[in-house]
Amino acid sequence: MFLECSSKSKGSRRLSRRKMLVQFGQSAFGLSLPMLLASRGQAAGPGTFGKAKSCILLFLSGGASQYETFDLKPNAPSDIRGTFKPVRTNVSGIEISEHLPLLARQADKYAIIRSMTHTEGNHPAGCYWMITGRKYPRATARAAAMSREDMPHFGSALALVKPPHTRAVPPFVMLPEQINPNGPLRAGQHAGFLGPAYDPMVINVDLRQDLNNAKIKAGELQVMEGLTEGRLMRRRALLEQANLRVGIEEERGAGLGVQPHVSQAFDILTGGQATRAFDLSLESPKTRELYGPHLFGQCTLMARRLVEAGVRLVAVNWVRHDDGPGGQGWDTHSTHLEWCKDELFPPTDRAIAGLLSDLHQRGLLDETLVIVTGEFGRTPRFNPQGGRDHWPNVFSVLAAGGGIGGGQVFGASTPDGMYPAADAVSPGDLAATLYHCLGVDPETPIVDQLNRPFPVAEGEVIRGLF
User: Fold this and answer.
1) Average pLDDT in the 426-452 region?
2) Do 204 and 185 meet the contact criterion of CB atoms below 8 Å apart?
3) Is the pLDDT assigned to residue 274 strictly greater than 80?
4) Rounded to whole angstroms, how far apart are CA atoms 221 and 235?
5) What would the pLDDT profile of 157-207 be if each residue is shown by its tens digit?
6) What is the percent of the chain with per-residue pLDDT over 70, rounded to a whole number?
7) Longest dimension (CA), the chain
8) Would you say 199 and 3 are in contact if contact means Cβ atoms under 8 Å apart?
9) How far is Cα 83 from Cα 102, in angstroms, rounded to an integer?
10) Sign of the four-CA dihedral 464, 316, 275, 280
């Protein structure tokens, strides 16, 4: 989990008894899970709207080209349309890229939004807008690093306003890593002003391996080697006694505030529900093959397992690192067509189509919202390196499940694919729709560190999708 440690004052050299017990509670597990759970609230927002119980957010880091995926322009000039051809899907009148054949067979299960638009062509700031629903409010350069001044990620807000029905799973999981292609973790990927209690559990993968063979571990959900269930329960009893003593000794039972998050940590560790969800070996070889051997596919399969276990939101980020694992990812400034055809489209097509098919067969699609997006689209014309550059003015987003009607296209771009032509959709609108699908009123208030209230989303629900 991403945790932000507060700094100690220079004059402080001694720990109070309560702080010592808190630290003991953390170290007793051999992990930092209790820290995350320490101040998690149980506030729930209204639940009168959508069908979805969970959300899977697939983020194509770098920004996928609308021209080569879901909004091809075969009649545009050659320097705009590229060489990829549109193909028919299983829904009459809807065409997508010829290099997404598996998704073409699943078009009845998803909607294509072809009119997503914003004004931020900077990667970190564009990412922030698309995963929080808010425009980055400070100098763009600051979006390259997370801050407790940030608005919360969708998953963090849901952890507050609509926590899972079970304490045995974390509310928000992010894998295989947080987005950091060239240094700091980008803004918007944690709870921001809501505080560390609502940060995601981040399942970091060792990316030094080939992305087709990278191993996924459950991280902090794994009990230390040699720590048996019996030893865990004895530690739980000891901690309960310590909390009781502190509660008696300290005014207003201050020590008792430690107990709920410690108790939930024990529930997660000993219940086994979350740990089993992270164990891909429990899936059949056929199912694992359905999603493909690439890390993105296996993370997408894990996302399905996690929402099935009750996790509210799972964010799967496409891995990319400048001069490292994943290379340029979807930030295709060079050899765009070749990179898309050979490196990006095969695992993406397989993973998303596999997810939609799997959710449908398991009867989970209606209760699982799936959103596929990046921070923006790509430029209409190619640059001298054969790449497409950043283009936030219009791009495409795929949405499925959670009450959204499949087999449809919402909105449209101009014939040259440069701007919205009908039904423009903002990131705030997408955010409002996400919350609506999950049964949360977009007007539900959240409060920052200065006790200022904000609606959880500031856009309008995209009613045409339902």
Assistant:
1) 95
2) no
3) no
4) 17
5) 999 999 888 777 899 999 999 999 988 899 999 999 999 989 999 887 877
6) 76
7) 78
8) yes
9) 20
10) positive
- The one-letter code for the residue type at 452 is R
The CA–CA distances, whole Å, from 111 to 37, 356, 412 equal 36, 12, 13
Which tokens hold the place of 15?
């720990």
Compute, in degrees rounded to 10, the torsion defined by CA atoms 17, 22, 25, 31: -140
Of the pLDDT bands very low, low, confident and very high (cuts 50, 70, 90), residue 298 is very high
Q: Give the E-state strand segments of 148-193 in sequence order.
A: 172-175
> Which pair of structure tokens corresponds to residue 266?
């024990």
CA-nearest of 118, 129, 116 to 410 is 116
Tens digits of per-residue pLDDT, 241-269?
Answer: 655 554 444 444 444 444 444 555 555 54
Give the Cα separation of 378 and 219 in Å (integer): 35
- Residue 176 is classified by DSSP as S
Question: Which tokens belong to 234?
Answer: 């004895």
**How far apart (Å, rounded) are the C-alpha atoms in residues 27 and 100?**
48
Q: Which tokens hold the place of 334? A: 């060079």
The tens digit of pLDDT for each residue in 122-160 reads: 999 999 999 999 999 999 988 899 999 999 999 999 999
Backbone angles phi, psi at 244, to 5 degrees: -65, -45
Residue 20, SS3 per DSSP = helix
Tokens of 363: 């009867």
Q: What is the mean pLDDT of the segment spanning 23-38? A: 42
CATH class of 51-217+278-465: alpha beta
Please tell me the predicted confidence (pLDDT) of residue 284: 93
Please give the C-alpha separations between residue 217 and each of 170, 223, 282, 315, 357, in angstroms, as whole numbers.
15, 12, 14, 16, 25
Q: Is 466 exposed, middle or buried (0-12, 13-18, 19+ CB in 10 A)?
A: middle
CA 72 vs CA 33, 61, 65, 66, 109: distances in Å:
46, 20, 9, 7, 20
- The full set of domain ranges for the chain reads 16-45+222-272, 51-217+278-465
Exposed, middle or buried: residue 98 (CB in 10 Å: 0-12, 13-18, 19+)? middle
Query: Do residues 371 and 55 make contact, with C-beta atoms less than 8 angstroms apart?
Result: yes
CA distance 152 to 190: 6
Residue 14 has pLDDT above 90, yes or no: no
Give the number of other CB atoms < 10 A from CB of residue 181. Answer: 21
The CA angle 383-389-395, to the nearest 5 degrees, is 130
Distance of CA 178 to the CA centre of its chain: 9
The whole model's pTM is what?
0.82
